[in-house]
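> forwarded from #structure-qc
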């Protein structure tokens, strides 16, 4: 259901002496260690699939992101991260079971709407500037 999907955006500008290739490698490494999941590079964008490591209640959602890198000066780069959350299979199982018999399982459904992955992705972007 598209109506339950949630979307977040993060924007960050970094000043560094590194080349674009070095920035992309550093960003890829930062995303792998901070949010985990499957990290794939495609041109000036990095796709993260199932990047919910270290995320509180991350088990109730599938977290995917696309981080694009744009050079804006000789020593400045802009990162634009588009993060999307989709309900996981556990979300649907607990929602359906909660409707019919086990109402306490609704807590997992509520947790989906509490998740905010922006802080973890922001930490990854901040690590590139150091």
């Amino acid at each position: 259901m598209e109506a339950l999907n949630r979307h977040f955006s993060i924007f960050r500008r970094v000043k560094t002496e590194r080349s674009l290739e070095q920035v992309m490698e550093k960003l890829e490494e930062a995303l792998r260690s901070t949010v985990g999941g499957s990290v794939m590079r495609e041109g000036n964008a990095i796709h993260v699939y199932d990047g919910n490591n270290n995320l509180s209640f991350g088990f109730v959602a599938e977290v995917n992101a696309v981080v694009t890198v744009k050079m804006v000066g000789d020593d400045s780069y802009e990162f634009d991260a588009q993060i999307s959350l989709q309900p996981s299979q556990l979300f649907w199982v607990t929602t359906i079971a909660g409707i019919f018999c086990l109402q306490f399982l609704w807590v997992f459904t509520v947790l989906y709407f509490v998740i905010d992955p922006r802080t973890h992705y922001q930490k990854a972007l901040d690590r590139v500037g150091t």
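QC bot note: Strands lie at 6-15, 38-42, 45-49, 61-71, 76-87. The chain has one domain: 2-87+116-124.
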